[in-house]
Amino acid sequence: xxxxxxxxxxxxxxxxxxxxxxxxxxxxxxxxxxxxxxxxxxxxxxxxxxxxxxxxxxxxxxxxxxxxxxxxxxxxxxxxxxxxxxxxxxxxxxxxxxxxxxxxxxxxxxxxxxxxxxxxxxxxxxxxxxxxxxxxxxxxxxxxxxxxxxxxxxxxxxxxxxxxxxxxxxxxxxxxxxxxxxxxxxxxxxxxxxxxxxxxx
Length: 201
What we know:
Layout: H1 8-15, H2 24-28, H3 46-61, H4 65-76, H5 82-91, H6 94-100, H7 107-115, E1 119-121, E2 124-125, E3 138-141, H8 149-156, E4 166-169, E5 174-177, H9 192-199
C-alpha cells in the first residue's frame, strides 16, 4: 500500500472520501467501485467495518501492513489511549511531517523527497520516511534542494492551514516539530477505536 499506484478515484469511492486527494471521477460517481457498486446494499459485518478502517488509515499514511502492525505494537507499549497513541506515532513520521509542513503536496511526494535525500533533520540527511520525530526536532530542505520545483511550487501553494504542533520558518525553509499532536488536533477522519478492536480479536 505504501507504493499504491492505481487510480485515486477507486480508493476514494471505496471509502467514500478523498483520502488520496481530490478526484473528479470520485465526485461524479458517488458509489463504490466495481460492477455491483450501485446495487450493493448488504450491511457490512463488524469485522469488515473494523478492517476497512485499518485499510483507510494505511492508505492515508502510506504504510505497509508490517509497518502498521509494528506501529500498533509500539502504541500498545506506551502510556495513554492506544488508538490515540497510534495516530500520534503515524503523525510523527518524517514523511507525514514533510507533507504537513507544506514542503510536498502529498504524502507520496513527501516520501520521495525523503528517500532521495532532499530532507534533513537537525541538519543531518535522513532518507527513511518512517523516521520518528521527537519534540524539538527541526525538519528542513537540504541546501542543494531548496530550488527544486516540487518544493518551491508546493510551498508557494501552501494554504493558510496551520498545525498546533508544527512551526514553520519561511526564511530557513524548515519547520520545528514542537510537540506530539493531541488527538483533537489531528484532522484525519479515522475511527481509531475500530482499529484497536480489530487487533484485540
